[in-house]
Amino acid sequence: MSIHWNWRLVSRLSVITMAILVVIIVTLLQRDAGALTGPFGTKTNTAGLQGADLGGTPAPDFRLTDQLGKQVALSQFKGKPVVLTFLYTNCPDACPLTAQKLHSTMQMLGTDAQHVGILAVSTDPERDTVDAALQFSKVHEMQDTWHYLIGTREVLTPIWSSYNIFAQSSQQAVSHSLGIYIIDRQGKERVFLGNDFTPTQLTTDLKTLLKE
Predict the structure, then answer these.
(1) C-alpha 35: how far from its chain's center?
(2) Residue 147, beta-bridge partner list
(3) How far is 98 from 17, CA to CA, in rounded Å?
(4) Which of 73, 97, 101, 114 is least enclosed, having the fewest CB within 10 Å?
(5) pLDDT of 35
């Protein structure tokens, strides 16, 4: 009877030990998988920002034409957090949704919105004209809030490359990377949010950067 009990005890301890090991392994795998989700991962950085930590590297500068025909450079927004995304005006789904969420974010920011820059870079140089960019901006109530930036393919391609953006046009649509970069007031890349970001997430990150 005593020997039978000891084996039962050993068996139970073995099961418990295996369960603990499984939990540890699963936790480690989830942590590693989190680092690989999306183009930049999904880890929260040390500043408490939501999104994939981009390490604070300087954001590559560029200069393009906006929906009002004005020349706009990323570097002119030094001193403000910047939201940078890549869209096209004929997009039937994802791009309009991103524009709507950016509009909601600016509303949620209230008076802080004037201290934030929003840049949308075209992924469709052949069809995104100044008129198309202005019309798209008006439809989403962003004409006075963001800069929808256009340019030739020769000008845009290096910008896409510097931000790891894939963009390929067909006769009807454009396949392109989705999501947004958040750049801090010093012009450094801080986090990347996938296209499933919420206005609340983005608002929280921007308010955090405004306090830095």
Answers:
(1) 15
(2) 119
(3) 47
(4) 114
(5) 32
The β-bridge relationship of strands 82-87 and 117-122 is parallel
Quick one: CATH architecture of 52-211? 3-Layer(aba) Sandwich (3.40)
3-state secondary structure of 184: coil
* The pairing of beta strand 167-169 with beta strand 174-176: antiparallel
* SS3 of residue 174 by DSSP: strand
Residue-by-residue DSSP string for 4-44: HHHHHHHHHHHHHHHHHHHHHHHHHHHHHHHTTSTTT----
C-beta of residue 62 within 8 angstroms of C-beta of residue 82: no
Q: Which pair of structure tokens corresponds to residue 131?
A: 């008129």
End-to-end, the C-alpha distance of the chain in Å comes to: 69
Q: What type of residue is 172?
A: Q
CA atoms within 13 A on the CB side of 128: 31
Among 90, 54, 104, which Cα is nearest to 170's? 90
DSSP conformation letters of 132-164? HHHHHHHHTT-TTT-EEEB--HHHHHHHHHHTT
